[in-house]
Specification:
heterodimer, A: 433 residues, alpha/beta, Aconitase, domain 3, five-stranded parallel β-sheet, globular, B: 198 residues, Aconitase, domain 4, seven-stranded mixed β-sheet
Chain lengths: 433, 198
């Protein structure tokens, strides 16, 4: 039977020749990821249900990446990391990236990729809704709660309903001023925040194939903001080069059958898209950056799994070099590898770090989720009052970055950097010749 | 032991109530399997909602509202299981919404904390905060006891026996998906997912 990529992965993972949307299948899990916010609760359920001395189903398939509340004075946050550390010791788990050690990474979705845990054709579950980021690697990847994660820890399986697939195709080439963030904000505006509910969102076309792995990750990262169960992209040489540089494990990618059924199909001419912004308080409140030129800002933020990768900082630096920011601008890299890149990567002979410092940005080199989701009161960059912020992050729900009085506009690193310079929302084409 | 009817006061919300409004991220340092922190999560349930009366009165840990009536896409956003748990810990027993975000719905079922009932049509205009209502799970209806109107709900289907059992693990044991013997003798003192009774 003709199948989409998502259907093929779930068929293989459940030992079936074929599956259809709506089928409930027991999928064998290749990787389970958890972090400091949901890990302790998951471990609590695992011990309660399987026994205090029970062992996880496969030590090599569990990945634990503390990343959310790391650089804070909050005692409970430290207690939660201690809980992870103790579990890792009890279970002798090899894939743990401990706080305060050279192994510490930062934001789990980016660390998973950088450490070789994202592999084509596999099944990844994580206790975080942005686990869908790994769809960029031709993986079935989605977020789950603590109870489902504890079930996997004990059994290695999860009951999954096979989602129907929506296919989004972009022909040609995205313009140089456009980033994947603009593309996904455009799509969410089109389908709405529940337009992809229970569905797989598949991205294809020449323009998508031309994207770097980092940009593909941004595209898949925000399918959850459209309600999607997973995002997925075909693997190619760009994928293989990234993955093979980071893991020696074998993998088997999947391709969609030409006659596979899609519940939604739309093509775009990639050249027609414009720098796009989501207005408060929902990721589907779409506008072009140009339309919002009168919106006055009080701060800008660049960071998170969505917009805190090295490519995001390089893009921001292209606009910020030789300029000064007009509003307080917070920068926080997603992972320690990216922190290092900010120190060493150069544009016109200047490091990204010095470009950002000269522009007047406030930079934290402590890689983590930081203020993307508010967090404890002492979190770097957290919104603690009626701020109007433009951000490269993924959500602008009320109170998402801290105070309920805050307003968050979501945009690409280009648009955020251009807006930080002007102090009002700005189309980055004004700075990109 | 399973619920057939849920009765109590109604709390009314609109569309796209996200998990940051249900339980703001600053409270995610609380671990739901620790009894004190489970209770504490309840005290913060829905405290992030803009422009609405408190779901849980200031300084208390329980809500006077048993049933939440909402619009589309309830529970969108994060996979945090703290969200259905916070509502359940506060004493909420059912949500009646036009539609749900996928992970929130699944977390309601997996934890057995809440009955996430879907409605074939929008019901937010049928209730005001504080109305007394009764859900009949067998008949798949909700009755507004003030207006006496009986409104249809979509049957819960396969999800109901899982919630009736108290969540995924108890259901999996009862139905032989996981061996009953995996139930440990060392079970810690944690709040067992409520098995609701009529």
């Amino acid at each position: 039977m003709a199948m989409t990529m998502t259907e093929k992965i779930l068929a293989r993972a459940s030992g079936k020749a074929g599956v259809r949307p709506g089928d409930n299948v027991w999928a064998n899990v290749d990787t389970l990821m958890t972090h400091d916010v949901c890990g302790p609760g998951t471990i609590g359920i695992f011990k309660r249900e399987f026994g205090a001395t029970a062992k996880v189903w496969d030590r090599d398939k569990v990945v634990i990446i503390p990343d959310h509340y790391i650089f804070t004075a909050d005692d409970k946050c430290h207690r939660n990391v201690d809980t992870l550390r103790q579990f890792v010791q009890e279970q002798n788990l090899p894939h743990y990236y401990d706080v305060g050690t050279p192994r510490y990474k930062g934001v789990c979705h980016i660390a998973l990729a950088q450490e070789g845990h994202c592999r084509p054709g596999e099944v990844l579950f994580g206790t975080d809704s942005h686990t869908c980021t790994a769809g960029a690697f031709n993986q079935f990847a989605t977020g789950i709660g603590n109870t489902d994660a504890a079930f996997i820890l004990g059994t290695g399986k999860l009951l999954v309903k096979v989602p129907p697939t929506m296919r989004f195709v972009f022909d040609g080439e995205f313009p140089s001023y456009l980033m994947a963030k603009d593309v996904i904000l455009h799509l969410i505006g089109e389908i709405g925040v529940d337009g992809g509910t229970y569905k797989a969102m598949e991205f294809g076309g020449e323009a998508v194939q031309r994207l770097s792995m980092e940009e593909r990750m941004t595209l898949c990262n925000m399918v959850i903001e459209g309600g999607g169960k997973n995002g997925i992209i075909e693997a190619d040489d760009v994928t293989f080069d990234y993955v093979r540089a980071r893991t020696g494990k074998d993998f088997e990618p999947v391709k969609p059958d030409a006659d596979a059924e899609n519940v939604f199909y739309k093509r775009w001419d990639a050249r027609t898209l414009e720098p796009t912004v989501a207005k408060p308080h929902s990721p589907d409140k779409r506008a072009t950056a140009r339309e919002l030129k009168d919106v006055k800002l009080t701060r800008a933020y660049i960071g998170s799994c969505t917009g805190g990768k090295l490519t995001d900082f390089v893009s921001a630096a292209q606009i910020l070099r030789g300029q000064k920011v007009a509003v307080k601008t917070f920068l926080v890299p997603a992972t320690t590898e990216i922190s290092q890149g900010i120190r060493t990567e150069k544009l016109d002979g200047k490091t990204l770090l010095s470009i950002f410092q000269d522009a007047g940005c406030t930079i934290s080199m402590d890689a983590s989720c930081a203020a993307c989701l508010g967090g404890p009161a002492d979190t770097f960059g957290r919104i603690n009052g009626p701020e109007v912020c433009i951000s490269t992050t993924n959500r602008n729900f009320p109170g998402r970055m801290g105070a309920k009085e805050g307003q968050v506009y979501l945009a690409s690193p280009y648009t955020v950097a251009a807006s930080a310079i002007r102090g009002t929302i700005t189309d980055p084409r004004e700075f990109l010749s | 032991m399973s619920a057939t009817k849920i009765r109590g006061q109604v709390y009314v919300l609109g569309d796209n109530i996200d998990t940051d409004q249900i339980i703001p991220a600053q409270y995610l340092n609380l671990v739901p399997t620790i009894p004190d922190e489970y209770e504490k999560l309840g005290s913060y349930a829905l405290c992030g909602v803009l422009d609405a009366p408190a779901f849980v009165p200031q300084g208390q840990s329980k809500t006077p509202y048993t049933i939440i009536v909402a619009g589309r896409n309830f529970g969108c956003g994060s996979s945090r299981e703290h969200a259905p748990i916070a509502i359940g810990a506060a004493g909420g027993r059912a949500v009646v919404a036009e539609s749900y975000a996928r992970i929130f719905f699944r977390n309601c079922v997996a934890t057995g904390e809440l009955y996430p009932m879907e409605t074939p049509s929008r019901l937010t205009e049928e209730f005001v905060i504080g109305d007394e209502a009764e859900i009949d799970l067998d008949a798949s209806t909700i009755t507004n006891l003030r207006t006496k109107r009986v409104l249809s709900l979509t049957p819960l289907g396969d999800a109901r026996p899982v919630i009736d059992a108290g969540g995924l693990f108890e259901y999996a044991r009862r139905t032989g998906m996981i061996p009953a013997t995996s139930h440990p003798d060392t079970r810690e003192a944690v709040p067992v997912n409520r098995v609701v009774e009529d």
